[in-house]
Write a structure and sequence with these properties.
With about 300 residues, the protein is of the alpha+beta class. The protein has 14 helices and five strands.
């Protein structure tokens, strides 16, 4: 019973954190409330204002935000989402947090395997010259083709076990120069990690990475506190690469079926364009990837 209470409380606390973050970032004007001219000590909506907008009691909402109430009904969640004008991704994340808060899970699941299957490594090779890689749920770089590693300038200087795209964005000295829209890139990165960690906040691979970045990067800590969540979208990314110049590539990320949360990322450019020429040059000049520490385990 103690284990169940601990799990529910942890899930309830994460649900409460998300509600508080969204509440404090929702302005009264945004939801049609008129406020007086005096100074408001609370950023965003007050608890009682949100409770009134959602049609629930103030006491019940306070219990939700403090992690004391772990089984809100779907209608309550929907009412809170409407009151704070959450987008589809935020609304879905709210539902997932509530599901986890109510779930009995006596033991946390083991961390996912980092092993990449041989046929997936072969797929990476067949994608050349398009830069491609496979990452874990915590954005560890698990496998790559030459361009997939070289595109993130300077990442190859780190040991293979330390190569992580979130760590690179916040801690590598080259990252800010590589991405002209670095601010946008890091916001999306933190939001994806927030989404994953909110659903599985006790996962050791996620807690270790987040703890490191909270300690080492004030930029990460500030964005983490906002608790933004977003869905994945197909986008283009522009790189100011020190070896091949400026290139803008289409970006696609997809979950790999039958893997423990692994995702395939690939960049593309139209043949015959300067971007494709730069991508081809990157592939031709990049060193062949070293054998990954997990490669031996694949064959055992």
């Amino acid at each position: 019973m103690a284990s169940e209470q601990s799990t529910s409380s942890g899930g309830g606390m994460e649900l409460g954190r998300f509600l508080r973050a969204r509440r404090t970032q929702t302005s009264p004007a945004q939801v049609g409330l008129t406020v007086g001219a005096g100074l408001r000590r609370t950023p965003g909506l007050r608890r009682e204002e949100l409770a009134t907008l959602a049609g629930i009691s103030i006491d019940y909402y306070v219990r939700l935000e403090r992690g004391k109430e772990t089984r809100p009904s779907p209608s309550v969640l929907d009412a809170l989402a409407r009151a704070m004008q959450l987008d589809d991704a935020e609304h879905q994340h709210l539902r997932e947090l509530a599901t986890r808060a109510a779930r009995y899970a006596p033991e946390p699941p083991p961390p996912p395997s980092r092993t990449v299957r041989p046929h997936l490594r072969l797929i990476l090779e067949t994608m050349r010259p398009s830069p491609a890689y496979i990452i874990s749920r915590s954005m560890d770089l698990l496998a790559w083709n030459p361009g997939g590693l070289a595109l993130y300038a300077g990442l190859a200087d780190w040991p293979a076990t330390q190569r992580n795209l979130a760590r690179y964005l916040f801690l590598h000295p080259t990252a800010r120069a590589l991405f002209p829209d670095w601010d946008t890139q890091v916001r999306g990165c933190v939001a994806r990690l927030r989404t994953q960690a909110g659903i599985d906040p006790d996962a050791p691979d996620l807690t270790s990475l987040v703890g490191e970045l909270l300690l080492k990067s004030p930029d990460f800590a500030k964005l983490w506190e906002r608790y933004d969540v977003i869905g994945r979208k197909r986008i283009q990314k522009t790189f100011h690469h020190p070896q091949v110049g400026i290139l803008t590539l289409g970006s696609q990320s997809t979950h790999l079926d039958g893997t423990p949360g692994q995702r395939l990322g690939v960049y593309t450019a139209e043949p015959g364009t300067p971007d494709h020429d730069a991508m081809l040059l990157l592939d031709l000049t990049a060193p062949q990837p070293a054998r990954h520490p997990d490669a031996q385990a694949e064959q055992t």
